[in-house]
Specification:
Blueprint lengths: L16 E5 L9 H7 L4 E7 L1 H4 L6 H20 L4 E5 L2 H12 L3 E5 L5 H17 L2 E5 L14 H9 L43 H15 L3 H4 L3 H7 L4 H5 L5 H11 L6 H23 L22 H9 L5 H13 L4 H14 L4 H11 L5 H12 L12 H8 L4 H6 L19 H7 L14 H15 L3 H14 L41
Parallel strand pairs: 1-2, 1-4, 2-3, 4-5
Helix pairs in contact: 7-11, 11-12, 12-17, 15-17
Length: 533
């Protein structure tokens, strides 16, 4: 008799151990699963929580990917003698019911850096576990450090964490069987937001995640460093591993190991290194929300909280969400994202830039909508990135993207615009990216009715940029802004890169700008995870 038989060294039956799957829908490199298997029979549980799925940042797009992943997870566990128990309801109530049914004495899971709903839920579960005498052991998911006091040395800790040996589960273990939902029908009866016209081609599951990873490392990622910026080439040459990492179908450790092994052979060194740097930034951005959960509701730099209007311009917001701003490249990117559930990082940054600077919308008004469009939605990365691209961190250089420059750089033949804004296909090629420049004769020849067949620009980009510059320049005259910037830099700033560390000097040529650094999209992007994983 041994541990695989659920017996202790004295031949006594060990009490069951509950493994709670959250955003870690895999069998490989799953530390809680391995540790729990060493303590007793396994009760493997996934909870479908109505409160979580009713939140503003949740979508049927996510639920479909999770459900596909649950089917694969259930099959993998079944091969090892363990049933995946899917239950619906509030976490504490469901866990208490399962404890009463099975008598489990230990709860095992990965740490989760989630939204306020999951943060509050975890606090309730912790209180319940203490009250019931259930030991709850949480394990780090990747390189995010819970309870971190200081960012100094964080990169070294990340490197150590991502190069530890993978946790290996025995080939067969003893499982506990109780009633539950069919994993393939996990979300039946759950009220989910659904958007018409979606056709994502990323399928959930550990097996599919491994296939995508190896296809990238074994040749698909050649040219990645250059190709990731354009929506024309990124869809094929980006890794597109982000949903598999976000929902835990793959461990970041596995992704790093596979790409490191391929570096210089099947994957050129420059492409592999670019990908690996974004793996570090993946955890860097998540660490920010882990350290300060309230960032879901306020700006990093609190002096920016009232910078933009408290109520959004609903007409502008709707035009941006629906891909009808009058800027073809912006609209093509939004329409592509809404249909596919994925677009490359530079285009995500441009969409946020347009909403934040051209439309002057507060990030809190559009972040839930974008979260619902991203099949790879990861709260820590999402919230940190949107605030950074909106200019409200106080430690990052502002980057205002020019839609026309991005179009010229990344869709020079307008093939992407033709595919996603078909109402412009009859226009002369030189007018496709800026239809407002059509002459009356050209419009007549093309049978095109400006403002009817396609909207005129909702704002003038140059005027919007001038206004944004002036408002940020005025804000940067405030001592409160710089005091907050110093706090944010100390608490959240990278120790590996220069994140706008110094207060800019007043410019003699244009004192009103206060040295405000802006980037119309031509400069180097900060290395970020959404370009790769």
């Amino acid at each position: 008799m041994g541990l695989a038989d659920g017996m202790d060294p004295r031949g006594q039956l060990r009490p069951p151990q509950c493994v709670w799957f959250k955003r870690d829908l895999r069998v490989h490199d799953h530390a809680p699963l391995v540790a729990a298997a060493a303590e007793g029979p396994l009760l493997a549980v996934y909870l479908v929580e109505p409160e979580v799925w009713a939140a503003a940042d949740a979508d049927g797009l996510h639920a479909d990917f999770v459900q596909e992943s649950l089917v694969g997870l259930a099959a993998s566990l079944r091969e090892r003698g363990v049933q995946l128990v899917v239950r619906r309801g509030e976490a504490v109530a469901v866990l208490e019911a399962l404890r009463a049914e099975t008598g489990f004495t230990g709860l095992w899971s990965h740490e989760e850096t989630g939204n306020a709903i999951t943060y509050s839920r975890d606090r309730r579960v912790l209180a319940w576990a203490r009250e019931r005498g259930v030991g709850w052991r949480e394990f780090p998911q990747a390189g995010v450090v819970r309870g971190l006091r200081d960012r100094d040395g964080w990169a070294r800790r990340w490197n150590r964490a991502l190069h530890r040996a993978e946790a290996a589960l025995p080939g067969e273990v003893v499982g506990v069987s109780v009633g539950g939902e069919d994993p393939g029908q996990a979300f039946r009866g759950i009220d989910l937001r659904r958007q018409a016209g979606r056709a994502p081609d990323l399928v959930g599951g550990e097996e599919e995640g491994l296939r995508v990873l190896h296809s990238f490392a074994e040749g698909r990622g050649r040219g990645y460093r250059r190709a990731m910026s354009s929506p024309v080439t990124a869809y094929e040459q980006c890794s597109r591993l982000s949903p598999y990492l976000s929902w835990g179908c793959l461990s970041l450790r596995r992704a790093v190991a596979v790409v490191e092994a391929a570096r210089g052979t099947s994957l050129p060194k420059t492409d592999a290194s670019s990908f690996l740097s974004r793996c570090r930034w993946h955890c860097h951005f998540m660490q920010k929300l882990e350290n300060e959960p309230a960032l879901e509701f306020h700006c990093f730099n609190r002096a920016c909280d009232d910078l933009r209007p408290a109520a959004p311009d609903e007409a502008r917001l709707a035009a941006w969400q629906e891909g009808r701003t009058g800027y073809p490249f912006v609209d093509a990117c939004m329409r592509s994202l809404r249909a596919r559930g994925w677009i490359n990082f530079r285009m995500r940054a441009m969409l946020v830039s347009f909403a934040a600077y051209d439309l002057w919308l507060d990030w809190r008004h559009f972040h839930p909508f974008l979260a619902r469009q991203f099949i790879d939605y990861e709260p820590g990365i999402h919230l940190s990135q949107i605030q950074m691209q909106s200019g409200v961190t106080g430690i990052n250089t502002l980057r205002i993207y020019s839609p026309l420059k991005q179009a010229a750089d990344h869709d020079p033949a307008a093939s992407f615009v033709r595919a996603w804004v078909p109402e412009l296909e009859k226009l002369p090629e030189e007018r496709l990216q800026q239809p407002w420049t059509l002459t009356a004769a050209e419009a007549r020849d093309a049978g095109f009715r400006p403002g009817v067949d396609y909207p005129r620009p909702v704002v003038d980009h140059q005027e919007a940029v001038r206004s944004a510059r002036a408002k940020f320049a005025a804000l940067r005259r405030s001592e409160a802004y710089w005091a907050e910037a110093a706090r944010v830099r100390e608490q959240h700033g990278s120790r590996r890169s220069p994140e706008d560390r110094r207060r800019p000097r007043r410019s003699r040529r244009d004192a009103s700008q206060l040295g405000l650094a802006l980037d119309e999209g031509s400069g180097k992007e900060p290395a970020t995870p959404k370009d790769a994983p």
